[in-house]
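Quick illustration, no need to memorize.
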Amino acid sequence: MLQWTRRKFLAAAAIVLPLAMGALGTVTEAAAEKVLRVIPHADLKNLDPIWTTAYISRNHGYLIYDTLFAMDENFKPQPQMVDTWTVSDDQLTWTFKLRDGLKWHDGADVTAEDCVASLERWGKRDGMGQALMGVMDSMSSPDAKTIVMKLKSPYGLVLESIGKISSNVPFMMPKRMAMTDAFKQVEEHIGSGPFMFKADEWVPGSKVVYVKNPSYVPRSEPPSAAAGGKIAKVDRVEWTYFPDQNTAMNALISGEVDYFESPANDLMPILSANEGIVVEINDPLGNIGFARFNHLLPPFDKVEVRRAALMAMKQEDYLAAAVGDQKFWKTCYSVFPCDTPLANEVGSEVIKTADIEKATAALKEAGYDGTPVVIMQPTDIPLLSAFSLVTAEKLRKIGMKVDLQAMDWSTLTSRRAKRDPVDKGGWNMFHTWWIGADVIDPMAIAFSGNPDKGWFGWPTDPELEKARTAFAVATSAEEKKAIAMKVQERLWAIGASGELGQFFVPVAYRNNVKGLIKSPVQFFWNMSVE
């Protein structure tokens, strides 16, 4: 009996040992896989970066899609998917040749026809895209690698438009996706970029996974902001969403994650004190706080009510509450970022008022009738949650009824697209921020005065639109500056939005993360984990 048992044991071991070795091999292979583990600034809910301007969707887009041109660190457009291009002597015909080796994630070749369809869809949603399409006579693809744009008149922002760095970015998609109505989300997520989206591993509200695209051929130039070689130095990028900032901080400190994109400023002293953590500002231009009114619904359908609300907004109060340490913020009464070429203070007296008594009197004179103001409050983004609370307090002080509705940011970005009445899911206000690069000139969609093509909130102002159109064709710096001042004057005159000041949000990461690209936008190529 003993001999039989021993023989049985040895036979079983002969089977188990190879299995164990195989399992060990699998573990070893998995351990060798390089994974960049990231805490993103928000939950990824909407996957179409053309349908929405949400920065989390834009960051998702940069991982899986590519662009014809891209902005370098000096905000100059550089070729990305394009190899060569020419412009006719009369500046009306632009011809672009795609570079070799471009393939979609499903293996199909990228064609000029795909790119034309992608540009047309983007041009229906983006401010610069709308302006470009306004001077477009035709756009065609005479062969698989050639894109031809014929303009009605010379236009000085062609490359700046198709190479813009942030929302909405003109990402290239396969034609079948690009033919989707621009006001509906695409249902596939196939790009040609350095990473591929793993739809089967996506857990909304928790985790997003991207894997290295083995077929991607990066450019030979060194990376510079969105331009240059996009080299995937890790096999996987995993976003893990933490609704609670303290939990997220502890995950970074413990090594559970490598990179924290947007930690709350009150966590900075703790993170900075940790020897294994690097805290730094990655975007020298910073962000612009934004309080957005819904111009379609009462009470903010009246310009006098909007301006009365603006008169109550004191930038210092918002920035102190939301950002904290003054070394990370400054007041700015220009709609264009301070310390940029078009910054000015024309018309800004309304936001400089910052006086509750004067705002109360203005609201009474405006004939406010007690209509409640629904403010959407994204509680999972501390900075925006604080903005919401400050506004709620100020509006109540001047005599408005406020309905502060808590939700997460991904829900807000879906709901803000609704033009419905409040009792059917509509809204009156929300808060956000724009990176400075997005609002550096009048072509930003945030400054649109066209309610059919403009951004959420939908202001109507033909005079504003006329000035924005003029800016697009202006040829001198002096002319552009004068037009920018006119645009700003109209934005303050109609009470388009509340500008809440300029601030800087540091990133935090473990010191084994290398290759971070300095840019207003978070990129994940060139980053490695050692």
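The longest strand covers residues 136-143.
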